[in-house]
Structures
1.
Amino acid sequence: MFGSRFLSVFIPTVLSAKAALGASLASDWPEFRGSTGQGMVSGNLPLEWTTSRNVAWKITVPGQGWSSPVLSGERLFLTTAVKESAKLSLRVLALDPETGRQIWDVEVFAVEAGKAPGIHTKNSNASPTPLLAGDRLYVHFGHHGTACLDKSGKILWRSDVLKYPPVHGNGGSPVLVGSALIFSCDGATNPFVAALDKHSGKVLWKTARETSAKKKFSFSTPLVISVNGQTQIISPGSGAVCAYDPADGHEIWRVRYGEGYSVVPRPVFGAGLLFISSGFDRPVVMAIRPDGHGDVTDTHVAWSLSKGGPSTPSLLLVGEDLYVVSDGGIASCVEAKTGRVRWQERLGGNYSASPIHAGGRVYCTNEEGTTVVLKAGAKFEILATNALGERTLASPAAADGALFIRTENHLFKIAKANGS
């Protein structure tokens, strides 16, 4: 373990009294984009903050990573990649979410120095977000491997048998259905979706992606949905979004979108429709009826939107409104059932993090570390603009009225001080 010398904590005194009480979190954030996987937060979050106001704590995180934190009870978990002289150390940190204090720090995989494939400047070797299920923590490092730990930091299994040639690094996070831990492996050639047994790490199934897209690599996180009593794994990749049966990985249906590649946004689902964005170079937002079989490109696309679509941030569905934030900072509110644009405005800055919703507000964090808070609804209204002044690409996490924002070197806990 690294020990405490790698982790420094800043705790404003205005919040230290609450931390001293040892209060535990009342809600969880168990995977990428929360308990629903779609960025919905239970309860309210702070509206305004600065680098000192409403900051419960700020810690220095060792290494580099763009994964989001996950939380359950009295533990917060975060992955990171630390460059050492002889190796790249892929690690998991466990923190006390009330104080930011490090509880443990475990190396899961080690890559010999110089042997890790190159990554994009907007990526890291620890970009996939972990997944919490009960007393188990599943961590995924893309082509480097996947592992399961208990909450004490003991490694229960590791698997690195699924090999593929990455492009720009890793990105997509796993999902869990029954005993199957499922994720995409979309590299330079022969992309596939795979499932590991959550108890042992053994491969349960592996399904090849076959599309006409010339560039095969993508980074999306699957979404689990239920359609007419059937569980589907929705996984966008280069050239098409496909639904898979979690039992054996067979493809249920697909919708093609041509040469769309490097797909990052996680799908969202509601009102009987699935919403996706088709990736680089010209992202198109699509609404799809997910009750088909086979190739349903010509029959099950309810509507599409070609202006303002995201290549990186995921979509956000709140009631009957779909919120879309493009990489270039154009925010749109779209009528989910029809695709009619209610409003479309420029926020400023570039965006990679996915927006979240809490208490009638939409939180959008840009790459400069500024979070623009919008009023959810048919009228565009900025409620607050909150700058941390640090680069961030990671999507925020939220629990128990607090917001957790990862920047290039730090993790912030944003929480109201004394009810302010």
2.
Amino acid sequence: MDRFRTKKKEKGEKDKIDGKDVEDLHTQMQNLLISDGTPTMSDFEKIETVGTGTFGRVWVVQHRESEKFFALKQMRKKDVVRLRQVEHIANEKDILLSVKHPFIVNMYASFQDTGHLYMLLEYVQGGELFSHLRRVGRFSAAVTRFFAAEITVALDYLHSLDIVYRDLKPENLLIDAEGHVKVTDFGFAKYVPDRTWTLCGTPEYLAPEIIQSKGHGKAVDWWALGILIFEMLAGQPPFYDENPFALYEKILAGQIQFPPHFDSHVKDLVRKLLTFDKTRRLGSLKGGGEDIKKHKFFKGIDWKEIDARKGKRGFVPNVSHEGDTSNFEEYSDEDEDEMAPTTGEDPYGSTFEDF
């Protein structure tokens, strides 16, 4: 969804919650939803919008019966069809329902009415990594190393299932109440055992093989990791231009200008991740993601602790309660009527029959 800004915490809010308790409650809620069958909008109360996008909105909602909070992604069917995103939305739903990982947002259910599609997701209260990065300008090496480690583990997990994520960027990384990463927005994710040719992603993060339409696979995610590490440390990506074609030329040229504060280890890692030849790119060799974990940039990282969500975190966001929305931007309700649940004849019933 769109980029967020951080809001101030309101006075009188409760002390920070324990992230594990929230995770346990979400697990209980998933079991409740499964036992009760497919949910409907009448089961939830809309609390606040925490994101907007081309197709609709992301709401924080509260389940009326359990009083637990969730993120509800609501998409207008007409816009999904008009922009030819039916396959991407179907892939997102199927992939999110098939994966379970501590650094990936959990999805609990999908449902629809005559005008909208809904995805019921884990609510991650800490906001986007993007908003935290923009607030401080750039992260320290320690903070960057921690987040990059968790993201590496998440990507390695997806690749083990032959899933290519294809949209890694700060806007698609949420921070939970305990300071851990949660990868979200799987609209471009796809099951790719070999190669695919679809042109998709965020321009600054596109790998050369996507731009050249040569067919791409898992290696594009490792390229994007290199871009992300650079952006976390520098405050901006290594390749940028307002003109998309000029930007693509810069990516294909591969000339990286490192800021003075980058040490030799991070320069080496970024260069190896931003290797033009995907067959020689770190992460794409015989050792896969393990080669990245062994790089000197990650010296001192205990990967067993990372897997267990332990170890020294980058930072812990200011979160006071399960439904806290203070880390997200305030949005207007100008299209709220259009987002109201709909009934009657469904012109797109056959298109989304399996949603």
3.
Amino acid sequence: MDKLTSRKKQILEAVIREYVVNASPVGSRTIARRYDIDISPATIRNEMADLEELGYLAQPHTSAGRIPSDKGYRFYVDNLMQKSSLTGEEQIYIRQAFRERNRSIREILAQTSELLSLVTDYTSLILRPSIKKTVFHRIEMLPMDSRNILVIIITDTGFVETDVIRTTEEISREELNSISRLVNERLYGLTLEEIGPDLFENIERELIAKNNFIMETIDFIKKILLVSDEEDIRLGGTSNILEQPEFKDIGKLKKLLVVLEKESILSDLLSRAFTSSGVFISIGTENDYEEIKECSLITARYQIGDHNIGSIGVLGPTRMEYARVISAVDFVARCLSEVLTELNS
């Protein structure tokens, strides 16, 4: 890593701050006029030329000013960026949104996606990993009244899914306990990929024989446990991409939109959050996929208790407000972990 003088660091930070706001190449006179750097525009210009030669800045056109390179953004994030926090109002808004009750995990994740895109003005991504490898622990069925049942399915990683089922006939607590007991006996200790349609047919036959066959309940259990092996990706604020000057080029925009439709790529990008603690930052050419080499991805894990369940992220141009986005992703991930852990306690 090159050792930059304090003056070069100051100028690099000024160029990045200016470019993030205005999305236009930055000249030495702009830096001299708007930032408290007590040297002449000519000296600033020479320092900017040095930073370009070192790879921290680039000059898109001969007569234009400079713009940050991916190397410049990386140095800024690792060494120059001041930590930021969401405003008190934003934090209160997010926490209040997560306090809404009686929602399934899918509804919570959908809301999280909307919140993250709203707070950052970029595109949000949320990964709910495949649960095929998790081990079934138990199902709980609790009567809310004579026809409405709260159904909770729990695996070895914790809470998986919950919903309120309305039945076409009245059902007692004893009948619910009988159904839960049979399902738990037949499925306990199996991974979800080991639970197939044939096993459910046997369970259905036994329930029919015991006159405890409640179609709505069985349909819900099957819907959750007989899942496909695809991971669940949710996007929020995709239209925010259209607001970014970098993607006014239709060719670039089309390539990016194609990537956003490929769950396998998005899953791979989000899965990398599992290899690092805290917030993971991938800038421009650090991304493996050509279509997003002009983007940065900020991701973080979310948990139920001590179990890593999935990850959330924000995708935007490399010309990103890194401090603000990092703060938002971290805060939302922690709030999401708290509400999921509370639901599972």
